[in-house]
Amino acid sequence: MSFSIQTRTEAHPSGSLTEYVLAGILDENAQLDPIRAAQGAIAIHFRGVTRTNSCGVRDWIQALSQAKVTSIAYRECPMPIVKQLNAVPAFVVSARVESFYAPYFCEPCDQDQLCLLTLEESAGGAPARRCPKCQQPMKFDAIPAQYLAFAKRMAPGA
Amino acid sequence: MSPTERDLLSKLYANSQETVLILGADQKILLANPRAEEDTSYPVDELLGKAFVDLFLPEETQAIVTLLEATLQWQSGTDPRRTLRRKSGKKIVVEISTMATDFEGAPAIACSLRDITDRVKDEEKIRQYSQELEKINAELEARVQARTRELSDQKKELQDVMNNIQEAILTVGPDLLINPGISLFAQEVFGQSELVGLKLPELLYSKAEERDNLAIWLKQVFEQPEMWEVIRDFGPSSLHFVKSGSSEAENVRDLRCEWRPILEDSKILKMMFVCQDVTEQKKLEAEISRREAEHREELELIAQLIDVSAELMDQFVRDFEGTLKSGRQILESEQAGEKSGIERLLRELHTFKGAARQVGLRTLTARAHHLEALAQGPMPDLSTLRTEFDDLAQGTQKILDIYRKVTQGGSASPGAGHLKIEAHRLDALAQRLGPPLRHGEDVRKTLLWLLEAPSHGLLENLKSIAEATATELGRKVEVHLSGGEERIDQRILHLLTGALSHAVRNAVDHGGEPPEARTAASKPEALQIVIHLERTPEDLLRITLSDDGAGVAVEKVRARAIEKKLVDPDRAKLAKDTEVLNYLFLAGLSTRAEVSEISGRGIGLDALDEVVRRQLHGEAKITSRLGQGTTVTVEFRDDALAPRPSASEIECLSVPPLVKIEGFLVRPNLVHWIDPETPSADFIKLRVTRASDFAQVPGLEFYLDPATKIHSAKFTDYSQKAATLQNLLQTISGKGQEFQSFEQVIGDIAEEMLMNAFFDAPRDAEGRPKYASLARGQKHILEPWEAPTLRWASDQRFVAISIEDPFGALTRSTFFRYLDKGYRQGRDQIDRKPGGAGLGLYTLMGLSHWVGVSIEPGRRTEMTCIVEHGRSFEQYQRGAKSISFWEKSAQARA
């Protein structure tokens, strides 16, 4: 699956916000020129990123560090990106992680769920979620101290 | 420091959750981060140039000035509690940490402030609560006394229970001193009536090193309770305890131990030590082992009977009875001590030895030989001779008994020359020999060894295949066999029959020229094929398959390999003929359609290479001269498929050419990684063990159930990576319920492996990295012989992926250095140099439960990553991590 970046711009109280929607594998073949050329306030949507590799991570950090941006938001980070946020602290560059996915498990339904969490609600531990099907509380299917380590590190007042 | 560096410093502290200030030598603020504005309510612009002490209450000025002056003298300091007066007038309590530094070329102070107002308030509340509690307690003293009596009674009951438990139970606190409350049995086990107050490590161990190890572990347990689940297994689980002041056998006890933390609010208050005396159980196990050894000996005797023909065995039985009778008569006669008597005995023994050798009974042959040597000595001792003779007679009788058992009272199959033991009867056979062996694996190993077969069967099979192929094609062939006396594991014979059949068919189909061409070339009309099997001086088995056919057209192979894009065209054009012949082992080239025009070789040679190199840890080579013929040679060890040794078996081997390092990683985010190259007391476990033979340290197969199907891919063009990964994921996923992101984990592992193998592993002739500095995104094609092999498989318990390169360039120090910098997560975590990011090994370790690395320097590196199956991602995260590192030492290489 090749890597792609789609760009869209939306109005922002303090100017315009450029959003970058990523999809595919973030590896050495990922073309990151749009990120390198980014300016002003930007938001990165990671939801479509399926995998990463070490060269992709290094290239990402370099590209974002070269961008002339005033603020960066990471949104909808999937599990591969959360892995990098925890394992490679530089991956965050100077971004603010707004939301990310975490694994939950509904025992009655024997069903995995990926739930979107915000940084604020996760800094103190895994927030509760109910199964969309049976409405029973789901189990957070990860070790909070590990999976949410980045959230604890980045949360305001941490 | 340049203005750019000043900007960088600002950026560095931009997201800090503490106020960070840089002060000049005059104690005025030179730089402040955004958090400072939040904590002091002064805008950053106003803070710059302001005297640091002006931020605090006047009565604290002197103490702060003293702290800053000391810092400028390079004494880092912490002032636990100062009151900061914000611009708004509100006061907050802060903790100040200072450190000397340079800023813009002048001495400066780096200062951080942590807002601890809430903590101070909490402490104050706790103090007030304590006072109130003290008051209440004083009023309730009478009730407390009553409750104490009640508890005392309960404690007594508890002690009564403990006294009746056949386990030694005691507890220690962080000072490692044994607390009151000890089971009576503990006093009995340890042979001391007064254990309270003793240091536990000193009670349990007499050696200082062992005491220190236990003390270090207990210290870690008390200091890092959150690590308990990770490190619990590293506490001693058994002890060999010698009661103080005695070394008599009855005072040496084997103890089985357990450790249980006693928790309160996530802290470990005490550790409970529970141990059982298993001395008698150990004795029983030793007895079982002894009996197992006896059974093993019997099984080995069966092995000696396998090739005995019925006629020979019957003859031996008759001779044996005659020899025994004569020998006994001689030894009991008056001539026994005389020269003539000894000479007669020697003749009998010699006859017996010859008969035993003829039927292949090695044990009896050796015993008879030993007895002969005794009898031939200058002054043979008669009583010794009689004893030894009785032993020989008993040993022989034992073999005959076994012979009758396994043939169920009959004799061996007449004329077959073999004693057939069906696989499904093996366990039953073991039962018949006495009590069952404890482990089915023991039976399996021993009996697999019995199921060897003579290798001439392989040669005959290959001859039949050649002749059948010739008949099918209407050609003439003459096959000449030589060698084949060796006995080989039947599984190897089976593998080789399949693999070499390709080469044989190929020789007949494509190697032979038309009859008229052969005649014109002064060759016999029939294609001549010679198949030879021999043992080399290096104790390898070598099979050569030669024909006098047309030989390989090297230039056509070269052109086809380039056309098929299997090799780099520029390199291929310069390659020597011998190298080009190796292209025939490439999978992409060896298809019938592709090579039928090329006079002879190619079909299935990749399969041959795969079997010989991968499964038999050997080598396959091809040489050819145009017009004169082709020779395919394979060399391998005949114990290559020996039963997989367990880790403990390998560790028990004493000959030391191999070094295995086993390190247990600690989890990131809980405890930092410690480099085992510089082991310290903090490192949880580092074990160096040795094994005798690198062939016993295979890669992927070692970790999997033997029946597991293994997939593999070998390619030279890095752009094929994506297709290979897709194939890998398709074959591995969907085999069972897996945790979320399972495919990502497996894909990431294979991805990093391939990148390392394609870019970092290859070396030039001088051993320098060949492609390490290449940009990873560019097109990259390896030489055929540089190609790594990716393999993967999944059994009930594990998914295993391995990558093997033919360079063996990875070193132990490189491996651990990259892990170290990965886990430290410092500024050097990512490489900035051209080439890779330096995160590959760290990533592999982070994704896997078990990483196995086998290195034969200069020859091959195989890295295997194991992930345990599981339904839950949490379970995947909780899986303990370990590394097995195998390195062939210089001694083994020599």
Round the mean pLDDT of chain B to the nearest integer and report it.
Answer: 75
- First-residue to last-residue Cα separation of chain A: 38 Å
Gross geometry of chain B: flat
Strand content of chain A: 35-45%
Question: In total, how many beta strands of chain A?
Answer: 8
Unreliable spans of chain B:
409-450, 591-603, 643-694
State the helical fraction of chain A.
Answer: 25-40%
Q: Find the structural class of chain B using helix and strand composition.
A: alpha+beta
Compute the separation of the termini of chain B in Å. Answer: 55 Å
What kind of sheet is the major sheet of chain A? 5 strands, mixed
Oligomer: heterodimer
Chain pair sharing the greatest interface: A-B, 37 and 39 residues
| SS summary, helix count of chain A | 6
Q: Within the largest sheet of chain A, what's the order of strands?
A: 1-2-3-4-5
Helix run count of chain B:
32
Query: Percent helix among the residues of chain B?
Result: 40-55%
Largest sheet of chain B: 8 strands, mixed
Low-pLDDT runs of 5+ residues of chain A are none
